[in-house]
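Journal club prep, notes for RB
We'll compare a predicted complex against what the paper describes. Inputs for the magnesium ion case:
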Amino acid sequence: MKKRIAVLPGDGIGKEVVKGAIEVLQAVGERFGHQFDFSYGKIGGTAIDAAGTPLPDETLELCKECDAVLLGAVGGPKWDCQPPHLRPERGLLKLRKELALYANLRPTQYYSSLSDTSPLRKEVIEGVDMLMVRELTGGLYFGKPSERTKQNGEDAVVDTLYYQKDEMHRVIKLAFELARKRRGKVTSIDKANVLESSRMWREVAEDLSKRYPDVTLEHMLVDNAAMQMIKNPKQFDVVVTENMFGDILSDEASVLTGSLGMLPSASISENGPYLYEPIHGSAPDIEGKNTANPIAMILSAAMMLRLSFGMEEEAAAIENAVNQVLDAGCRTRDIVSFGKKQVSTSEMIEEVKATLLDNEAILNIMGAYA
Ligand code: IPM
Ligand code: MG
């Protein structure tokens, strides 16, 4: 199969981890006989420096022409004092909106080899398998007005939480569909005791649940959910929530796996292309140090193979290779623990690649004797 992929490394460690995804995809291409063509575009601070805008038109056009988009991370202190429309994050938000990426899937899985890395006890996290479905193109992130104002001569500010009912409907429906293929439970997270938007969200979830009698629907207030995720994370199967709550809770959920550097994500739309990015940021403090964990980005590439290209076997091959490397005791700095081998970003990438290609050698031998 031949596929064209837009690659937007962005800022900070984005560039370092994206390199890992590309190299691993090249290894997949070699092993399974696919051709991946990579076309690079600028986004975030890098694009501000080069083109004066966080999302140049040519980057957007490139993404629309490609079969899928891989994105590293955006942001950094260099651009923190920019006016709002010239912040790196604005580029990513505009891209999500322009590509109509209404749902962001953030799977959180327990890795037995990392049980000693999580701050939570092994009994609490053992077997966690949760899929966060975050609404991605509405809510506080996009509502207007969002600005500084004056009220009776005093400085004031407003951000707006705005949703249309159909925006809630499509993302909650997706959560039900996904739950059907998993353990059949949806936890819808809101703040219905305070927010009107949450009360509508709850109604939409209730209405939809009538069409999914095989799926159990549970509502949970977001403050309680933040606690439950740490106290008893195994209770969650599919979690669905609005944009801002999802942003906050998914960072929390990542700790269950051992590190923010482990969590991949897929942002999906009605018609594609989909976008794949790790949930972590650009980590400017470790930029260029070759210590970042490339696994979230590599696993995002695996999600791309599965969801955009239907390459289930290839996606599983990447996930298996990552598991084997972790089982063998290889750790980047964020997940290292006593008795394990600390490796750099590039060494981790090499290990995953070598494991992927070595599997090929094993398969060939088996083929010859079959
Ligand atoms: C994420 C990030 C982004 C978000 C930022 C970089 C705009 O935190 O993908 O979770 O808030 O959505
Ligand atoms: Mg976030």
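Talking point for the session: The pocket of 3-isopropylmalic acid (ligand 1) is lined by residues 74-75, 89, 92, 247, 279, 281 (CB under 6 Å).
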